[in-house]
Protein 1
Amino acid sequence: MYSCQVAWFTHHKRVENQHYRVIESDTGRRQVLMLDDSGNVPKVRLTAPWLQWIDYKLCGNEPFKETRHACVCTPYIFNKYTGIFGLTGSVGGKAELQYLAKTYKALKFDVPRFLDTCHGDARKAVVNHGVELLPSAAAQIQRVCELAGQYYRKVPVLIITTGAAQIKQVLAELREGVGAKAGIPADEVQRLSQFDEKNRSLRKDWQRIIEDATRRLGGASDSRCRVTVTDKFGGRGHDFQVVDKESNANGGMLVIATSIPDEREWIQWKGRTARQDRPGQYFVILDEKSEPFSLPKHKKLASKFQALASAVSGSKFQAQMAMEELLLSVSDEGIGEKLKNFEGEQATGEKLNELTELYYKRHPRDFDDPWPREECLETDSKLRRILSDYTEAKPKEVAALAKAELDVELE
């Protein structure tokens, strides 16, 4: 009853499109999803009692009580193995590498890309055309759309925005403002995202949109390409194949980013260009009023950023790369802070996982058995209480509880 009262009370404080979003799947089912701190739908769905209440209130989905009867902690499981081998396009920046080495005793080996091992022409480089800092969000969006207007006749354009709100603003400016003045046909500006403007799933359209993004339109006198507007969803995991000779002759697909994320994500974003030994290019257009520039701890970041253009000796390219590296280091710093806070959480998680494993060895059962079991009702209930109420406890507290409540000795 208490948890129901908390859910009812706290749901009043939640704001649509800030804390949650009502989406519609490709089967027509409506559901409320919790958003992350950036206002985006996270890869791993989040949950909370208030979310269940709103989901029932707005979509009619029957609420259910979520209860823990087991705990799985990734470091606890992975470190049971003598070794794990994996391949990835990126393991992130310095902070993530340090975290992986400390938590999993991981070693990193750089494997050369195939084209780098071949004789003859090297793999095509991705060209950085500029990292620009604008005084406002409006100026940022205008500049992004100006660049799209300059390039859409030459190459396919992919704009990676910060999220749903900015997608909407950029689409409007491309179709009705700067983009329209530049001659971009409104119906050749397309959206690539998990959900459309009415929060309906676009799953059925993703492949078509991706294929259309790189196709050349028109004839000899009005040759042009589409402009595709996306967010983090479209910045990774999708293969934009530019086979058009004219586009490749003009430098390949153009990516315009309105933020610089952490290094792992950034490598993926740049990876939308220069695919399969074809050229690629990008711009980064930032808003001085948004994060990280707007954060108190980075109040001098904008002046450092602007100073780099003249402070770095040598070519303009070196200056642009220095500005990019500065922003990546700031993102890496933020990742490091999050991982540091996560360490304590994981240490507790390892103890809870160990408790779960030892408890079920003592009280074995089949996977499909009802939970809690009638013959283990008291101890199952104690386990659930520990797993639910002590997720923020110190590892020593968990070990003491395990001994006192369940007579389980943890290492």
Protein 2
Amino acid sequence: MRSLFVRLTLAASPYRSIGDRALLVLISLIVPAGLFLHAWNVAGGGLPLSQIARVAFWPPEWWGMWWPRGLRRPSDLWKRLPSPARVVRSALSAFIVALPALILTRQWVEAVTGAGVGWFGAAETLLVVSAGTIVLFAIPWAHRRGLTWSETVRLLFGATTMSPGWDSPALRKLLAPAHGAVRPPEPHEPRDYARAIDDVMARLDGSSRESANRASAVAHRLVDVLEECDSELRVVSMAGDTGATDRITEQIASLESNVRAGNEMSELLRLLRAQLEVVERVRVRCEVLSSRRAHLLQLLQGLWTRVGALQKLDVDSIDKLDAIRSEIEAELATL
């Protein structure tokens, strides 16, 4: 599209003959015509002309700037991008079109008007400064949201065709859900399951909404318990790791061969044995907490699955959701 624009601009130059202009226009139309014929051959003539024309003018898969809405690929992520990313891409799109246009038309405007056009330079400077400022503000915004440098580049400048590179957890959180869908929760983040359940509940009505509302309340209680479990795990895992057990065991073995009754080493040996006993209890507690967390997270995942099924209007979905909700409530009652 850019090359087409450049060739048509050159064809409009007053310093060329009518024949040269016609040839430049003809050459400019070769690429779009080739794309049209390729789309026609691929479709086998089974698509209407409007659809073939739309496919012919799809952007290349590496394209990351603005593109007319009706000509975007079905897998294009433009509408799902956060607003700052769309602003950056729109600004750069305007920049890469407007700046060459100013450069190419400056001589022509001077020839037509017969006067200097110093304002062209000011306009070009304004374009460069504006685009640079928008980018410089957007990069810190991306880093504040926990994106790595490569994720930042992909979000602000990368191709908007769906690819594995967009599948990182940080990017998934920033992308809006597909039209009519709810963004699935991150697999190991309990709080995100509650968010997804609330999003589904907001789209339901009638008895389905009532059942989802009760499930949402249970989900939030379950998330609170999981977060308490995580908090305790962070503490006990530092004291009950295998390294601490091995270190104390080695110290005890070293002292046992050199200790004599009644001296300080005997008292130290007794303290180390008591410490080893406490560390072993902490390690067991850590294993119990880990097992409990895995079980509770599995229940939360099951709850999310049943809430998500309500969107499919399955007549048995409400009963299945109420069953797993009751199971979770019974589990929470024992904690």
Protein 3
Amino acid sequence: MVTLLTKRSDLYIYFNLMCYKMQCTKEFIFNTSISMDQKCKVLSPICGEDQEFFNFFKVYFCQLNGSNIIISFLFIIFFILLFKFICEVIEDYVAPGIVYICEYFDLSESLAGVTLIAFANGAGDILTAIVASDSKEGISYNIGSLYGAGLFVLTFIVPLTIFNSPQKIILSHNIVW
């Protein structure tokens, strides 16, 4: 028999006279001895209190019943829309601004590619790092985003460049490491 009690902001669940403190940790979220219905009742308020815009835990545990297939499909759709939105913003605002700056200062295409396009590419990361530094987990986020961006370039962009190149490209092992 399961009984839910509220004590301050923590929830406790009792199994056969044993008490487990419910916290929003990966050990509790991935605990297979607790059913999805119980996780729905408990994790939605605990883990969702920090999520102001969208309560992922409520959707995943309550509405999708912990289905990894459906959530993976939704993530793929979300990322396709996200990249499409980013492409539209760059085409409508960033690219014309870079063209205007290049024409105004009479910059060569090489110089514009090295400076302005590199700045436009890194501006989002810089602004995100500044905003994330206000939170207590900001440093971890910034380090993770740097490693994630590097891993994305290494596993996605570099192979696409190599496969689509008309000439043979050979990378040194030192560049990858």
